[in-house]
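User: Last request for today: this protein with adenosine-5'-triphosphate, please.
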Amino acid sequence: MSDIDMDKTNKTIDTVKRGLARRYAAERRFRLFGLIAIVISLSFLVLLFGTVISKGYSAFQQTFVQLEVTFDRAMIDRDNPANSDFGGLVKAAMGREFPEVSGRKDKRKLNGLVSTGAVYQLQDMVSTDPGLIGTTNLVWVPADDDVDMLMKGHAKRTGAESDRRLDDQQLAWIGKWEQEGKIRKQFNRAFFTSGDSREPELAGIWGAFVGTILTLALTLALSFPIGISASIYLEEFAPRNRFVDLVEVNINNLAAVPSIVFGLLGLAVFINFFHLPRSSPLVGGLVLTLMTLPTIIIASRASLQSVPPSIREAALGIGASKMQMVNHHVLPLALPGMLTGTIIGMARALGETAPLLMIGMVAFIVDIPDSFVTPATALPVQIFLWADSPERAFVERTSAAILVLLAFLVVMNSLAVILRNRFERRW
Amino acid sequence: MRPVKKYGSEHRGTVGVITSENPRMTCRNVNVYYGDKHAILDVSIDIGRNEVIAMIGPSGCGKSTFLRCLNRMNDTIDSCRVTGEIFLDDQNIYDKKIDVVPLRAQVGMVFQKPNPFPKSIYDNVAYGPKIHGLVQNKVEQDEVVETSLKKAGLWEEVKDRLAHPGTGLSGGQQQRLCIARTIAVNPEVILMDEPCSALDPIATAKIEELIDELRAHYTIAIVTHSMQQAARVSQRTAYFHLGDLIEVGETKQIFTNPSHRLTEDYITGRFG
Ligand SMILES: Nc1ncnc2c1ncn2[C@@H]1O[C@H](COP(=O)(O)OP(=O)(O)OP(=O)(O)O)[C@@H](O)[C@H]1O
Ligand SMILES: [Mg+2]
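Assistant: Here's the final one, the structure of the complex with adenosine-5'-triphosphate:
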C-alpha cells in the first residue's frame, strides 16, 4: 500500500472519530426522550388506576344488619310466597329491635335503615326452604345505601342535621347496632350477581356483564369471519382496479367514522327498517360488527401484506392453487397479526357507549338478559348510567364497574397475547 | 418448426440456431414488460427434449424474467405483461384456457433466492406430492421425501432432523431443500435460477451431478453466472444482453467460438 493510501485511511478514521461524539449524543438524547415519554404515560396510567381503585374498591363490600326475624305463619302464604307480607316481617323485626320507637314518622325513619332488598331476601329464603316458616332466625340483611356510606366513611356523622342524609336519631340507632356488633361489612355478592337497581345497595354489574358478553360474542362471531374473508379476498384475489381502490378508500374512511354514526345507522336500519328488537344484544352486536369490521380488515390486510412474497412464489411455483397458497402458507403466517387486529377491534367494541345509546341499550333493565333478543345493557353504558346517578353510593359502584371493565379488557388482551404466541412462527 | 415473426428493421434477430430438432418448449416472439419497462425484447428460442440449456448474461439482462415466463410465474407480478407464444409440446401455455396449476406441476422452478416454507424439512419436500395427490400413503410419502433429499444431496445432513424447520438450515442447505422440493413433484421441465449461487464447490458439484442425471428424463433450463458451470452442465447456451437474446448455440461452440462480438466480450471477461 502506498503512503497516500495510508494517509487517506488515517484521515477517514479521524473524521469518523470526530463525528462519533455527536452521533452518540443524538442517541442519548433520543433515549432520554423515549424514557420521558414512557414515564409520563406510565404515571397517567398509575393515576387512572389509582383513582379508580381507591374509589371503587369499597363497592366490593356492603354493610349488612343483623335482624332477628320471626317467620310468622300468619303472615306467610305457604303456597304462594310472593303473595306474603315479608315487608311486615322486616318491620316486626325492626320493631322488636327498637321497641321504644313509636309514631309513624319515626318508624318510617327506622325502617329506612335497612334496604328494601331485605324483603326479597326473606322471600328467597322461604322459597328455597319452606321449613323456615314458623321459626325465628338471625338474618343478615343489606343496610340502606345511606347507612352503607356512613359505615364506609363516605358520609358525615357531624355537622348540621339538615346537611346530612341521616339525622341524629338514626345515628343513635346505628350506634346501638355498632355496639352490639349487629352491623358489619361483608363481601358484596349482590354487586356481581344482580342486575341494575334504583337502590345502590342492590344494584349489580351482572346484567350489564352478560349483556356485554352476548353483544361481544355476536360481534366476534360476525366480524372475525367476515373481516378475515374480506381482507383475504381484497389482498389475494381481487383484481387491482379502480373499483377495488374505491373499496379500499371507503374501508379506511369507515374506520374513522365516529361510532355514534354507526349507532344512528343501526337505529335506522336494524330497528326501524328490519324491526329487530330494540335494546337487544342482537342489534348491539350488529352495530358493533359494522364498527369493528374496518379495523379488522385493515389490520388483517396489513398482516397479509407482511407475509414475504417469496413464500407465495414458493407455493405457486410448486403448483399450489391460489386457495392452497393462502390456506397452507399465507394464512398461518398472517394469523397472529389478524388476531391482534381482531382483539384491538373487540377491545374498542367493548368500551363503545355512544352507538349503544342510540339503539336503546341505555334503558333501565333489572333482569339479567337470557337471550340475544331480550333487552340488555352493556358495561360501559352501565358505567354511564351510574355515573349519572345522584346517590353517593353509585359513585363507588361506578368505579367498581370500571374496574370490572378494565379486568375484562386485561383478560381479553392476555388471551390475545397467548393466542398470538401459540400461532407465531418465524420465517 | 414454428415460424418466427419478423418485425421490419427494428428486429435485431438472434445469432445462431434458435431451433431444436426435438423441442420440448418453443418460445416465439416473447416480449415482457414491467409497466412501461420493456424487459424482454422479442425473444424466440427452442428448448430441446432432454437437454440442459444454460442462460447466461450480465446482471439485469432479463434471464430470470425470461425463465419465469416458462411456467407463468410472472403472472404473480401485477405490473408484468407477457406477449408472444410459449409452447409446452403442442400447448400454448399463454392460452386463455390453460390452467397454471397443472402447468407448474409440469414445469417446476427453483428460485434465485432460497425460499423454503416456514415448516419442517419433511413438510417442505412432502408438500408438493401431497397437494397433487402423487402419494397415497405415509410410506410412499416418506419414500419420496427421502429420494428427493438424496438427489438434492441433502439427505445425509438432515436425515436426523426432518422435523426441524426448513428455515433453520444454512443458505446453501436451504437452496438444496428447495431443489428437493421441486423434484419431489417430478416435473417434466425444471427451471433453475442460479441454483448454486449460495453453494460451496462440493454442494455445487453434487447439484451439477444431479442435473446431469436428471437430463435423462427431464428438460432443464438453468440460469447461471458461472461460465464454467454453464460449460460443464449444458448442451446449449443462450446469451442475453439488455433483454435481447443475442446468441444461441451449442455450448462448446459458444465458449470456444462465439459468433457475436457481445457474446465474445462477455465470455472472455471483457464485459459483464
Ligand atoms: N418485479 C419487477 N418489476 C419491475 N422491474 C423488474 C422486476 N423484476 C425485474 N425487473 C427488471 O427487469 C430487468 C431484468 O431483470 P431480471 O431479474 O430478469 O435480471 P437477471 O438477468 O435475472 O439479473 P441477475 O443476474 O442479477 O439475477 C431488470 O432491469 C430489472 O430491473
Ligand atoms: Mg436473476
